[in-house]
Write a structure and sequence with these properties.
8-stranded mixed sheet; binds S-adenosylmethionine; globular; 2 domains; single chain; Rossmann fold
């Protein structure tokens, strides 16, 4: 994630993180206002609670839940009891506690909008590093002007944006299999229709001189995202910035590259700021 930030415009008024997920990118961006959006309503409700409640209230709630349900690296029953409590009451802060103790810290709901990720036995817990990250995250949320919305990207209102603003998109990737791709998790899935609708939205932003950046993969485990490749080829002002160090614009089309590797890209409608070359002592 952090390697993306140098590719973003240097001055941003409003920053929109349209598929914010864990907010990992947006939270690190320097902008006057941050707008986070994700169609996973329960996640957005958790972030809103972080903003509305005091830091002490949030940390106190987490500690009380951990002791009430005796959560630990091994107490699966306690985890399941908290999961049942969350699924019936939907206290937004309980979602954070569940994610902390769940398998791979994944956020997974079923079609009844019940959190259904299994227990992270011997692996996942609320440790001091997680607590410190949470504190830093909440402090940052409280010191900036921030807004959370739970829209489908199709319904997001971009009408207030202008050329000083920036839209970052990290949607589900069409050719990989994230937990949100199949449409069986209680929220709309991601297929060719959504992919094309998003690319149309980005074309609209471009026509209004609003800068955007799209994270994606052009190739993954032998599959190609033809829709995305064609879109880039048909828009000569869009730039493909390769994130894997072994690719560059010059070798992108060569035939001898590893067909199974993931080709991670950031597609932008602007020339990213020139990267400052960093030398070590013995390069000089
Ligand atoms: C690749 S993840 C984003 C990861 C995020 N950038 C991060 O740093 O954690 C994709 C996100 O898109 C959200 N999403 C999927 N379909 C969506 C839609 N139609 N509208 C808005 N958000 C959607 C998912 O809930 C998920 O959080």
């Amino acid at each position: 994630m952090p390697q993306l930030l140098p590719l973003f415009p240097q001055e941003i008024d409003n920053f929109v993180d349209l598929f914010c997920g864990g907010c990992n990118v947006g939270i690190n961006v320097k902008a006057n206002k941050l707008f986070f959006n994700d169609n996973l309503l329960f996640l957005i409700e958790m972030y809103r609670a972080f903003v509305e409640k005091s830091l002490d209230e949030t940390l106190g709630h987490i500690d009380r839940r951990i002791s009430k349900f005796e959560l630990s690296l091994t107490n699966e029953n306690g985890y399941k009891e908290l999961r049942n409590a969350y699924n019936s009451e939907k206290n937004p802060l309980d979602l954070f506690v569940l994610i902390a103790f769940s398998f791979n810290h994944q956020i997974r709901f079923n079609n009844n909008h019940e959190f259904n990720n299994p227990f992270g036995r011997e692996r996942s817990c609320y440790n001091s590093a997680m607590k410190e990250n949470l504190i830093n995250f909440i402090i940052r949320l409280k010191e900036i002007e921030v807004n959370f919305e739970a829209n489908d990207f199709e319904n997001y209102d971009f009408s207030n944006l202008n050329s000083d603003d920036f839209v970052y998109c990290d949607p589900p990737y069409l050719i990989t299999c994230g937990t949100y791709n199949d449409g069986k998790r209680g929220f709309k899935g991601w297929g060719k229709t959504e992919e094309k609708q998003l690319l149309c939205k980005l074309d609209e932003l471009d026509s209004k001189n609003i800068k955007f950046a799209l994270s994606n993969v052009l190739e993954h485990k032998g599959k190609e995202n033809i829709i995305l490749k064609n879109w880039v080829e048909n828009n000569s002002n869009y730039r493909v910035n390769f994130l894997n160090s072994n690719y560059s614009n010059s070798n992108y089309h060569t035939i001898d590259r590893d067909k199974n590797a993931s080709m991670e890209v950031l597609i932008t409608n602007y020339e990213p700021p020139k990267q400052r070359q960093e030398y070590s002592l013995f390069d000089l």
